[in-house]
Amino acid sequence: MPTVSVKWQKELFSNVEIDTSQSPYVFKCQLYDLTGVPPERQKIMVKGGLLKDDADWSTLGVKEGQKFMMMGTADEIVKAPEKGPVFAEDIPEEEQVIHVGHSAGLFNLGNTCYMNSTVQCLHSVPELKSALIKYPPPVRSNEVDQTSHLLTVATRDLFNDLDKNVKPVAPMRFLTELRKKYPQFAQLHNGVYMQQDAEECWTQLIYTLSQSLKSPSSSEGLDTVKRLFGIDLVSRVHCPESGEESTETESVYSLKCHISQEVNHLHEGLKHGLKSELEKASPSLGRSALYLKDSRINDLPRYLTVQFVRFFWKRESNQKAKILRKVDYPLELDVYDFCSDDLRKRLEVPRRILRDEEGKKLGLKTREKNSGSSSTDNDVKMAEAEASSNRSGDLSKSEPVEDAPEKEKALTGIYDLVAVLTHKGRSADSGHYVAWVKQENGKWIQFDDDNPIPQREEDITRLSGGGDWHMAYICMYKARDVPM
Amino acid sequence: MAPADPNSTGSTGGGATRDQASVKVPSKDPKKKDEKKDEDLSEEDLALKQQLELYVERVQDSDPGLQKAALESMRNLAGEIAQEYAKRQTEEAIIDDLMELVGQIVAFHMKHNAEPEAVDLLMEVEDLDLLVEHVDNANYKRTCLYLTSSAKYLPGPDDMLVLDIAYTIYMKFEEFPRALQIALYLDNMQYVKQVFTSCNDPQKKRQFCFILARHGITFELDEDMCSEDDEREGLQEIINNIKVNEGYLTLARDIEVMEPKSPEDIYKAHLLDGRASGGGSVDSARQNLAATFVNAFVNAGFGQDKLMTVPSEASSSGSSTSWLFKNKEHGKASAAASLGMILLWDVDSGLAQLDKYFHSTDMHVIAGALLGVGIVNCGIKNECDPALALLSEYVDKEDSSIRIGAIMGLGLAYAGSQDEQIRSKLTPILGDAKASLDVIAFTAISLGLVYVGSCNEDVAQAIIFALMDRSESELGEPLTRLLPLGLGLLYLGKQESVEATAEVSKTFDEKIRKYCDMTLLSCAYAGTGNVLKVQHFLGQCAQHLEKGETYQGPAVLGIAMVAMAEELGVEMAIRSLEHLLQYGEQNIRRAVPLALGLLCISNPKVNVMDTLSRLSHDADTEVAMAAIVSLGLIGAGTNNARIAGMLRNLSSYYYKDASLLFCVRIAQGLVHLGKGLLTLAPYHSERFLLSPTALAGLVTLLHACLDMKAIILGKYHYVLYFLVLAMQPRMLMTVDENLKPLSVPVRVGQAVDVVGQAGRPKTITGFQTHSTPVLLSAGDRAELATEKYVPLSPILEGFVILKENPEYREDH
After folding, report:
1. Nearest residue on chain B to A443, judged by CA atoms?
2. A GO molecular-function term, please (chain A) (predicted)?
């Protein structure tokens, strides 16, 4: 009966006796006693071979004091989880959008970056999307002409495509319809379609949509687009010469930010843009006289569009030249200063609520911190982890709240930047237009035609001009509202 | 005859006064001519001889000015003799008289610290044996240093001859570790044996064993080399590399890097701006696979990590299972095998942890477990041969992924062993008509690894037949490239021995003939520095090919493989590759980054780093991918902050391209290989010895990288594990005579080339003093900063045994 030593993991069992008259299975049972590894899980290695249960000891020629090595554990056997994980590579393309975190880019079809950037900016307005989904209404009004109808349908389909795809989309149909409706966009120069002014495209598109999305059945008589983008202005027209004074109201889709020598900031530009001089016939003087027009906002939209008046017609070069001046714009815009007294009154209560809420949030945070610092480090981490999970939970929860009946929400006059359309180059009809859009997850994406590039928020405010870098041309702000 | 008096005072050093000497023209009229025995000398020789005698006389002169002049003239004389010798060789005239002069000059030079001149002269007259008589205790070290370093620039077979002499001299002066190194360089096992038999000190023998273990060869001690059984067992254990895991972990504990790192710790996405791909909710199989590799590379050998090994306190069904199954299909094979990498060199716990995967029902998991067993055993020999025992029965299984796992595992575990059992297991597969191409390709590579540099006829035959059996379409498959490579590995560094096989390869199908030829040549001359072969490969790259031929890829790699032998060659090759980049065609440009990666492996040279960084943005994605992987290779195990930064930026640049991002991740893992404790450099012992298995592993990976998309980005990503063959701790670990770690102060600095310098110049510069164990970077050299101990090896790398210095006295 030879005795051998058996090495198992880091342990060494010396002097294990082998009963050579019995099968190796008996030996394995011996080892079972020592190691707790069931015989069928044991792998015993003898000189480059495995010991079989029915082997013959005599043929193996076991020597006294020989070393064996045993492999095997009593561990649980690895089982595949019943439901395997889902991999991004397996998911069909349309579902991937959610995981990528942003929608698709748009192919440039030959100098169409003005259109691509406009579409990308407008695409970021969910209310517009939902309104388009309902189009066409069961009862179509006759006011809408065929070309507008087709353009609206093309817009709807394009928005749909953008949401479904991860890969860039080619907006062929939309472009065709746009050019049909507005032949100026089909202008050719040397046989190539010309670069166009994005602001023109934006205005025309909004106008068309406002026409076609006007629901005749609506009790308010208001169209969706107007509710979303329309700004009511009340203007006091005053003639210093005669002392005449009158009030006018009008509705516009964007505020103009005039850029002059004194303007360094959006706020100043807007103030400038709301004042204008005009010459008209004065009934009291009996001749045309200079009138001053001083406008104030009387009603606020959900999405405030601000256009930087960067281009002016330069006769000598026969093109729309560009003002490169740097005009800063904030991520958070307060338009309270531009509002009429009437509107200010209406805004007071919501603004107070918003202030209170923000104060509460801050107060809550400080309290949380206090409790954290008093306990141990571990708890802080725990609290942080919880807080972060709560935060992410909040984000997902907050979305359905927004969709809740809108009447319960009140505007506060405070707006957050959600999209910037920039221009790079020296004139409106040349250069390159790009859209910078904030996604629902709070991340900024630069849509450079077919190439969406993630960006940092601080880089967005750097688009304020003053050089040859991209500079803001149109900014879109979203209203911050409070539930009432 | 020679009147030179051996007792004459040593020279006062000629170099410093060269200017003065050159002014003095030795034209004093030769008055004291000794005319005896001159009848058999030609007129010219007579003049020579007379001059020599005059010089010798002057050297003995008391006037130092005259002495210097004489020494200077001696150099001229040596040159004249060399010319005369060459002339007489062509005329086949008698040279005895010249040799007599040579003897005198050599004796003179050797006495006067001018060993290089003596060696040069003897090489010119092809009689190096003469040197052995003239070396003494004072100058043998410098002589041998000159011999060994000049060997790299000599054409064969002179280089072998020179090293042979160096070996003889070292043996004569009982400088055994150096002799052993030369024996290993010559790959002469007889010499290795001789070193063991000539040395009687058991401690020194242990040191030899450490040197052998680092070189990674299989070597069996017998009774002659060590008579006592117990002692022999202990020595054999060292050769079997059992100690490496222990030493590595001691190093890790000392440097305090035991804490496992997760792939996120390596990616450091928080340092990037908002561009880091959020992705988030859904796992990407590609990215998880990358994380698996990064995790394996970073935690290699530490025995713990954050993905695969379950922390002991966690519940039994912990994260290990879940991470394994976060990989898709063949990805699971790499994931299971990564456990082997994490437990690298720790056979006992490695096998225990891999055991659970053997009972899985998933073929890929079993394949991975088999591969993992091979990885754990890589470079380690065990008398129970667990790898062979466990893997051999899976070699002939149905499922091809299991077969590949077992075959590749065997190749890794027994690389360089020339194990007969493996051959008999694997060669039948090559002839198996039912085996799929991938199985055959991996079998060829495994055989090539096991028999690396052996020139084994039988294996060569088997692979050649397998190549001939391939159909036309199979020859076009990306994996087919592994067959010629397997064949080439058999002749790694064996130069002319490849010729017979290369002849046979000329009969192959046209599609693969040239490819095979290039691969064989590049392997055979790998690490030789043979300039003619480099030129040959460059010539091949200069040709403009018709479509479809791919043999220029291995030719470009061949340049790197041949030229990597020494620093000057490396520099020249880098410049040549730069030219190829500018003028070469696409298939050449794709291979250039890989060649750069091999030339500077684990040695991040700034100029190469810049070139690769530029190429990593190349318009051709395959060039970019190769450049990115090469960035990982040159930075492998260095934690180089610059490369890490570059890769981080690349990860945000390529965040949308899954394939390129995968390459970036792999490179990031490589840069932090073993948390910066490992190196992939196949050269060791002051860049003198080349570990054949390490080179074989690297070359295999690089050949696989020639078609990145099909192999590494396809389903054969586990070829990345071939790198395990080259992984070695880049440490200096000093141990006492009981092999327990011993901390002593050492100076670590940039190595200085002291060849041919007189006196005892400093061998390192810009050093810092550390206490062992320490990390050594590429080009670093260490020396003891204390007199208290004497190292048993002159080269302070890896494990070094220290002996107490008997003459040391503590001074107060």
Report:
1. B274
2. cysteine-type deubiquitinase activity
Cβ A424 vs Cβ A471: under 8 Å = yes
**B111 and B143 in contact (C-beta within 8 Å)?**
no
Q: Which residues of A form the catalytic set? A: 113, 432
CB spacing of A73 vs B356 below 8 angstroms? yes
CA distance A319 to B504: 75
DSSP B567-589: HHHHHHHHHHHHHHHHH--HHHH
- CB proximity B392 to A under 8 Å: yes
Contacts of A88 in chain B (CB under 8 A): 279, 282-285
Smallest Cβ–Cβ distance between B389 and the set A48, A87, A90 belongs to: A48
Q: Do A43 and B389 touch (CB under 8 A)?
A: yes
Q: Please check whether residue B329 touches A, CB under 8 A.
A: no
What would the mean pLDDT of B584-603 be, rounded to a whole number?
93
B460 compared with B133, residue with greater pLDDT: B460
Q: Percent of chain B beyond pLDDT 70? A: 89
pLDDT digits (tens, 9 = 90+) for A190-241: 888 888 888 889 999 988 888 887 765 554 455 778 888 888 888 888 888 7
Residues 6 or more apart whose Cβ sits within 8 Å of residue B109? B74, B78, B115, B117, B118, B121
Please give the full DSSP string across A360-406, using - where no structure is assigned: HHHHHHHHHHHHHHHS-HHHHHHHHHHHHHHHHHHHHHHHHHHHS-G
Q: Is B779 on the interface with A (CB under 8 A)?
A: no
CB contact under 8 A, A45 and B386: yes
C-alpha distances in Å from residue B649, one per residue of A220, A423, B269, B276, B286: 54, 27, 10, 10, 19
ipTM: 0.72
CA distance A215 to chain B (A): 40
DSSP B795: S
Contact B393 A85 (CB under 8 A): no
The percent of residues above 90 in pLDDT, for chain B, comes to: 52
Answer yes or no: do A71 and B274 touch at CB < 8 A: no
Q: Report residue B498 as tokens.
A: 């490849």
Residue B347 C-alpha, separation from nearest chain A C-alpha, in angstroms: 8
Give the angle B200-B205-B210 at the CA atoms, nearest 5°: 170
A7's enclosing H/E stretch is strand A3-8
Q: What is the CA radius of gyration of chain A?
A: 36
CA distance B467 to B375: 27
Chosen for mutation from A11, A45, A458 (greatest number of chain B CBs closer than 10 Å) is A45
Residue indicated by tokens 């999970």? A389
Residue A136: cis peptide before it, omega within 30 degrees of 0: yes
In the predicted model, what is the mean pLDDT of chain A?
79
Q: How far is CA B111 from CA A390, B76, B136, B261, B476, in A?
A: 85, 18, 9, 59, 64
Neighbours of B693 (CB within 10 A): 27
Q: Which residues pair with A11 in a beta bridge?
A: A8
- What is the structure's pLDDT at B32? 41
**Amino acid sitting at position A293:** K
Asked if A368 and A383 touch (Cβ cutoff 8 Å), the reply is yes
Q: What is the pLDDT of residues B615-653, one digit of tens each?
A: 999 999 999 999 999 999 999 999 999 999 999 999 988
Rg (CA), chain B: 29
Under 8 Å CB-to-CB from B767, ≥6 apart: which residues?
A: B747, B748, B749, B750, B783
Asked if the Cβ–Cβ distance from A86 to B352 is below 8 Å, we say no
Instruction: Give residue A223's pLDDT.
Output: 72
Say what the pLDDT of residue A310 is: 86
**Torsion sign, CA atoms B719, B725, B730, B734:** positive
Nearest of A70, A48, A69, A72 to residue A60 by alpha carbon = A48
Helix B658-671 crosses helix B621-634 at what angle (to 10 degrees)? 10
Q: Considering the entire predicted model, what is its pTM?
A: 0.76
